[in-house]
Structure prediction request, 254 residues.
Amino acid sequence: MRALIFDVDGTLADTETAHRDAFNAAFSEAGLDWYWDEALYARLLDVAGGKERILHYWKTVDPDEASGRLARETVDAVHLLKTRHYDAMVRGGRLSLRPGILRLICEAHASKVPMAIASTTTSSNIDALLEAPLGSGWRSLFAAVCDASTTDIKKPAPDVYLAALDALALPPDACLAMEDSENGLRAARAAGIPTLVTPTAYTVTHRFDDALLVLPYLGDPDHPLPQHIPDADQRWVDLAALRRWHSGTLFEAA
Ligand code: XBP
Ligand code: MG
Prediction:
């Protein structure tokens, strides 16, 4: 295992409630009578990318207007409002990273294991999330930050992961991806990357059939997993555990 590739939303932090609140605040500010409750948003998360998600929903409620001449610029304008609301909700450390993420990023950096980000979210959202916990120079921790500005083709397509592999100059089987959703897992697997999944409440019902492993979260010594991690007597995931699982020892006959 020579590099780690992190998804952002749901993986680095449980962000989708903030995203949902930001979408609803943008709809209200734009004078739209749309409201995405949790159940609807959980379904809409099948559409990666906020702009794509807005257009998809608009087509379900008003197909004619959604295919009109001004639809594209309307979606862009509403999404810009949403991004501003999300930034205000998240920047400054208002949203904590998931247990173990900061510890693993620091461990990988100290061990000179290259890292990349592969997300379908808007670039400024990643800065809003990471600037406080990782510092203003957070981008220097990553060999590449691949996001919605990197490719228009969103997950479950592999494009954003292929861009990360290209930047790392590594073959997929030399890397390990971390994801939270079925679309994300499908994208990483389509790129050939072994993938650890840590679902959130929005994605816990998804299918993760060809994940390397599914865990509730990575865990920390002061926020341990509810059970020991496979083939170890500790209750949090560290580089050594990831290396064992990546090398395939996890499923070797005991
Ligand atoms: C999750 C997404 C994003 C966010 C909303 O991205 O699909 O669209 O839900 O952010 P990830 P935007 O690949 O990190 O899980 O509105 O900026 O798209
Ligand atoms: Mg995600």
